[in-house]
Amino acid sequence: MVTEIDMFIPDNINEEPQVISLGNICLLDGSCTSSANFSGCGWTWMDSSGNIQLVGTRNFLRRESALHLEVEALRWAMENMLQHSTCQSFGTDCKELIAMVKDPQAWPSFATELERIETLQICFPDLNITHVPRGRNQTADFLAKTDRSFHRELHFIGCSIPVWLPRPPQV
């Protein structure tokens, strides 16, 4: 099965690519530091009007690299969209992640992780992974950064950011 993956690549590499519409999309992000014991993942599912319908936030023991964490964030977001929505579109600020999904054979050190993504892709006949500028992915970024600061396991899925998390500036 061939999967469509859209990449918005600017003519001038210094320009930030733009996504025209962020409707019915799951925005995701991962965050890690070399000194933290945990890495964080966050995602937000927005309906066709751009309203947040569901958020997910979780932390993991620190991953091998930031890119490993981005793959893990995509896997977790895909699994949740299968359970909670009909969303087929995902947005990330990680261009390398998009390249990995488009051509997994070019990333042999990620073979195991990408095999899990390929298996999930079977359930997404209209899969679309889009680059979203970091400034348009602030809620998922906030969730991921907040998760890594917890000193115990954290796993939350709900309709809004839980009250026990600090509020992001734009919410």
TrEMBL record:
Residues 29-145 form the RNase H type-1 domain. SUPFAM superfamilies: Ribonuclease H-like. CDD domains: RNase_H_like. It holds the Pfam family RVT_3. One of its GO terms (molecular function) is nucleic acid binding. Gene3D superfamilies: Ribonuclease H-like superfamily/Ribonuclease H. It comes from the Eukaryota. This is RNase H type-1 domain-containing protein. It comes from Brassica cretica. The lineage of its organism: Eukaryota, Viridiplantae, Streptophyta, Embryophyta, Tracheophyta.
